[in-house]
Amino acid sequence: MSDSTDHALATPADAEIARLNRRLRRETSARQEAEMIAERGLRDLFQRQQEIVLLETIAASANAAASVEEAMRHALAAVCKFAYWPLGHLLLVDDNAGRTLNSTPIWHDESDGRYDTLRTLTESIAFGRCIGLPGKVCEGSAPAWINAHSHDAGAYPRLPEAQRAGLCSLFAFPVMIDTEVVAVLEFFSMAYQEPDEALLRLMAQIGIQLGRVVERERTREKLMHDALHDPLTRLGNRKLFLDRLQQAQLRARRVPGYQFCVLFVDLDRFKGVNDGLGHQAGDQLIIATANRLSASLRQTDLVSRGAIDQSGGGGDILARMGGDEFTILLDNINSEQVPVRVAERLMSAMADAFVLDGQQVIVTASIGIALNKNGYDDVQDMLRDADIAMYHAKQQGRARWVMFDSAMQEKALRRLQLESELRLAQERDQLWLAYQPVVTPRDGVIRGFEALLRWEHPVYGAAGPAEFIPVAEEIGLISAMGGWILGQACRQLRLWQDESGQPMTMSVNLSAIQLSGNGLVALVAQTLKETGILAGTLKLELTESMVMADPEHALEIFRQLKELNVKLSLDDFGTGYSSLSQLRRLPIHTLKIDRSFVSQMDHHDDKRQIVEVIMMLAHTLGLDVVAEGAETAAEVDLLQAMGVDFVQGYHFFKPMPADAAGAAWREQQPSAQHT
Ligand code: C2E
Ligand code: MG
Ligand code: MG
Fold it and tell me: Ligand 1 center to residue 250 CA distance, Å?
């Protein structure tokens, strides 16, 4: 019934209107919905765009920033601007203090001092784990936020002050390198707003971007550190030391009365440890030494030197120059006594044995000191002088300190010159051999020669072997030189033997280095073969100390030389230490009595007695004796009376060039034939 009534009321026109109305409503709502969607999309698009701009701004400024601080400042400003936050702040994680946060003075603050109290309060708080919002972020490695009104001030100590300043909420996020939190950025907002997913994602992205800046800075710092430090000991290296020395020098020019000094420390016999116990033990020793030195430097009584930084000084520094060399800069010293006291302390720090590879080893140090009162223009010169002084400490017997003085420099200069000239001497034909005849004292007849090295320098004239042979040994020239000397002397001997038909002998001096090495026997064998001198006419001269340094090694070499029919002489006998029992074991043929006992023996009973004892000893052992340095007839007479077999000295002949030496024996030939 009602159906028919309705049907009756609804005219076709009404129905059409209703239908149109419905359609209109549908279309309107569809349009509104579409507009809403479009607007939301636009808003989102705008938001995305803003976010992209923010990320781009931060990325660009992070790349351009000269420091982490600068990048952080930019980021704080950009985020504040983006989110309409009035206050932003940076906190840095302090690795050394077990992940606490250091509140930095880096803020973005758009107010005129409105937040000053809050800022001061913030900077006074140490944000440990879980303390305050930054602590929470640091602990959780994730962003966090709080509503100032809905949290208690116990866990968040700054909330009351934030509220007082009209701030309603705090938001913070971490700066990350991988999973490590390196900094926290915190922001304060005037309205409470719960961050949405998009904001959180955005801030996480910024955190990663800023983390890259910190990482870049760390890499740079590590490179810088590595460039200035020694990896083994972690001490400063040469570059750092020179840099600090330079700073001290500049300060000395500015500040009247400011003094500093350099100590150059070198271990004694480090090579022995390195060669004997191996490189690892050598490294251990270097590290242990670095520790001992730096520990005893820390004790340096600052009281007696005044506060170290009064003059803006950089403090003392210990550096490793390389190898077993350490240098120390003592900054702002008030007397020359300071480096001396420090040097003494360093030496006593070295006194206890080191335990290396389970072995106890005693290692001493030699120390050179240079003071800046000498007025250096170049700090390298100061370092060089400390080095020279150290060298003198070694020369004086090691395990001591020496203060540099200018006479040392002259000596050092001469030595340097000697070194470089000596390297060229051989190729420039400046080396030659003099020959000093060895004669029988009764008739002065030449029985042989000793070859003595000479260096004729075109500018400096003749340099004596006593001066330059030790240098040649030190700079590693002696082996090559020794080979040349042996060859030259044997070639000369062969000529004279051929001419005279007599088995005259040739004595050649050996260096300790040649004896301690392994090539000597082969060299001698080769030389004998090449020159073809008569068997048993080559004599090699060695000193007692060379033999006693390693008697077993010497013995083995001597045994092999004996097989080659080479004779051995102990040179300068009586001046060195030798053990009689060792002497008996050695296959020695001749003793050469040192010149110091022969010279003026006719005036000194004690000298004569020494020569007598040596004669007895020699004859008991069945050795020949040569007396060196006989200059007068009286000395020769005494020597002959004592039964000395041969004499070598100015009384008969001085050392001379080969042709003069040859002429000398040729001259003797007729008279020798008459007798
Ligand atoms: P040495 O082997 O004891 O040589 C003897 C030194 O005494 C030589 O000095 C010689 O010139 C000097 N002399 C000889 N008779 C007299 C004298 O009557 N009065 C004085 N005042 N001196 C006399 P020289 O040539 O200066 O050599 C010094 C040292 O240098 C040598 O002492 C030797 O140890 C070393 N030497 C010389 N030539 C060589 C060499 O070719 N190789 C090595 N390794 N060392 C050498
Ligand atoms: Mg000699
Ligand atoms: Mg001698």
Answer: 51
